[in-house]
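Q: what sequence does this backbone want?
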């Protein structure tokens, strides 16, 4: 489905979402944020889609930031505009689907925050990732101060945010900011292959794994283990678990139904 500045394509159990504002380096504006929110709202009742891939149109940029002109024009309503973006990104973070960012170039400001809101980040060799907001007198507002400091150690997060320093793909990989780096021309093939592999897993197991990881991260270990056990119990009682175990013993491919 081509919505002009947002292209949504379904490939089996994988949904590919491409942000297309090439002249603006795919910068996020209100229109795109509203469309992203609608996509993820629709996924809540979509039992067929298991993995979502988000990328930017072209090879220059994933998302080069939020639309600065729109933020400036918001004036006194600027915080409400940012709140909207934060709410959209939180919806992505808490989606029951596995979300992969295919970072194909600049991922700056809001683009970096969008990548951080995803479960997995795969970058092209030409990717550049950073949060330059403080340099123009503003700050990350789509969750960047919280998400980056949780992913990296606090000192590195402060270094990147305070100085506005961007890192290249190799540096991002060393820091743990991205999980894999591929040549520019191979990025989408590799990401789609990964997405299909993840989508072939049990959907109940995927959803519960994501919940256990995300809910347990900020808890003491004993409390986090209780979260894991509660999610495991949901999986253990599922038909998919019975099917997966039977298929393994019978040496055949499982047929999961998400129940």
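A:
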């Amino acid at each position: 489905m081509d919505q002009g500045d947002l292209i949504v394509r379904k490939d089996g159990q994988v949904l590919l979402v491409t942000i297309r504002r090439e002249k603006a380096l795919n910068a996020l504006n209100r229109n795109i944020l509203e469309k992203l929110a609608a996509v993820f709202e629709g996924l809540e009742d979509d039992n067929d889609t298991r993995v979502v891939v988000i990328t930017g149109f072209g090879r220059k940029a994933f998302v080069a930031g939020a639309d600065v002109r729109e933020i400036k024009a918001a004036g006194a309503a600027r915080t409400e505009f940012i709140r909207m973006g934060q709410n959209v990104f939180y919806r992505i973070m808490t989606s029951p689907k596995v979300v992969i960012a295919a970072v194909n170039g600049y991922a700056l400001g809001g683009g970096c925050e969008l990548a951080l809101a995803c479960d997995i980040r795969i970058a092209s060799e030409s990717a550049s990732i950073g949060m330059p907001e403080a340099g123009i007198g503003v700050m990350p507002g789509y969750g960047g101060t919280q998400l980056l400091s949780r992913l990296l150690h606090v000192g590195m997060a402060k270094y990147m945010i305070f100085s506005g320093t961007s890192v290249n793909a190799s540096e991002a990989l060393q820091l743990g900011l991205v999980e894999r780096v591929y040549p520019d021309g191979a990025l989408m093939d590799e990401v789609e292959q990964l997405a299909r592999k993840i989508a072939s897993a049990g959907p109940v197991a995927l959803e519960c794994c994501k919940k256990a990881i995300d809910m347990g991260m900020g808890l003491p270990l004993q409390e986090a283990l209780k979260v894991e056990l509660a999610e495991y119990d949901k999986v253990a009682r599922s038909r998919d678990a019975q099917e997966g175990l039977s298929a393994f013993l019978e040496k055949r491919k499982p047929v999961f139904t998400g129940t």
